[in-house]
């Protein structure tokens, strides 16, 4: 089992502590948090060992799970890498693209593994259909959340939209050509609602909307490709696949047939993939352990995290 330590014991950090403690792939050694009063309260309530310094924790583990505020990701990652420790780092990978690229360079120099916490890659609804998303040419995403002060230290693009940016970059095998975006600050000092249009070199277009001042929660993505429409509800863990194929010469009474202006007939049929129950955060942490133990590339690499941040930064620069 890999010895694991957590940096940061806020809302998400406590979830990571609980899941690492449950995991059969890790031995949770302990955690560090800059808020000593909060850390000692967590230690007393849950029994996780509190380390009074980052260095002491890093020295005691094989893998460092960085769940601190984004602004401190870079310094935490540098400390861990300098000591030869594998790093799992929450999204966004760092505060700037330059920091992310430097972290990638350091990781390569020390020949260790790193994974970024883009948890939607492990969402069961997405996993059920990801192999059917092939060369999408139009994508539409909506990620809306009710207001929560947690996360408002960064623009909504880095807080919410970056999840969808990562998913889009993982399925569109082409470079981003143009970015158009607008954002509005309503409650925070940074934009709380944003819309972006990404145009790729292969002709694909993605339209993304993110808001943290919505009256309801929504996390939906729609993928349109040749002869197929695929919908993923990341919040409700549901998906829908609608496909078309050439209509049979003698369709059945209940077959759905469409005919276009040229007289071409297509049959519409629905595919309801089986969705397996899972804990996406536990799965992403366990997948990182497997990558370390088997000396293979993680599912969400630091390169992936860097590219998602790069596009997010391009969007923010348009505001």
From TrEMBL:
Signal peptide: none
Gene Ontology MF annotations: nucleotide binding
Sections of the chain in a coiled coil: none
Entries under Pfam families matching the protein: GFO_IDH_MocA, GFO_IDH_MocA_C3
Annotated InterPro entries: Gfo/Idh/MocA-like_OxRdtase_N, Gfo/Idh/MocA_Oxidoreductases, GFO_IDH_MocA-like_dom, NAD(P)-bd_dom_sf
Every GFO/IDH/MocA-like oxidoreductase domain range: 156-216
Limits of the Gfo/Idh/MocA-like oxidoreductase N-terminal domain: 3-118
UniProt cross-references to PANTHER family, sorted A to Z: BILIVERDIN REDUCTASE A
Protein name: Gfo/Idh/MocA family oxidoreductase
Organism of derivation: Xanthomarina gelatinilytica
């Amino acid at each position: 089992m890999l010895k694991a330590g957590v940096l940061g014991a806020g809302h998400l950090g406590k979830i990571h502590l609980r899941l690492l403690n449950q995991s059969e792939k890790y031995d949770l050694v302990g955690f560090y948090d800059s808020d000593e009063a909060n850390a000692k309260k967590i230690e007393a309530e849950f029994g996780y060992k509190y380390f009074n310094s980052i260095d002491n924790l890093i020295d005691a583990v094989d893998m460092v799970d960085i769940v601190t505020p984004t602004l401190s990701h870079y310094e935490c990652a540098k400390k861990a890498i300098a000591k030869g420790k594998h790093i799992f780092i929450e999204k966004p990978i760092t505060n700037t693209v330059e920091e992310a690229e430097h972290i990638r360079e350091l990781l390569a120099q020390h020949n260790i593994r790193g994974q970024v916490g883009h948890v939607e890659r492990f969402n069961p609804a997405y996993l059920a259909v990801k192999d059917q998303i092939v060369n999408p040419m139009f994508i539409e995403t909506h990620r809306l959340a009710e207001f929560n002060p947690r996360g408002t230290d960064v623009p909504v693009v880095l807080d919410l939209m970056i999840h969808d940016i990562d998913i889009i970059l993982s399925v569109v095998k082409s470079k981003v050509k143009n970015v158009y975006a607008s954002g509005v600050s309503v409650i925070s000092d940074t934009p709380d609602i944003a819309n972006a249009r990404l145009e790729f070199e292969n002709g694909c277009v993605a339209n993304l909307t993110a808001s943290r001042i919505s009256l309801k929660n929504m996390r939906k993505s729609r993928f349109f490709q040749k002869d197929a429409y695929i919908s993923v509800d990341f919040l409700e863990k549901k998906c829908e696949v609608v496909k078309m194929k050439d209509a049979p010469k003698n369709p059945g009474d209940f077959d759905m047939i469409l005919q276009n202006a040229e007289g071409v007939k297509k049959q519409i049929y629905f595919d309801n993939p089986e969705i397996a129950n899972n804990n996406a955060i536990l799965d992403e942490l366990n997948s990182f352990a497997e990558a370390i133990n088997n000396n293979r590339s993680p599912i969400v690499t630091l390169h992936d995290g860097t590219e998602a941040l790069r596009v997010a930064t391009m969007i923010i620069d348009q505001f």
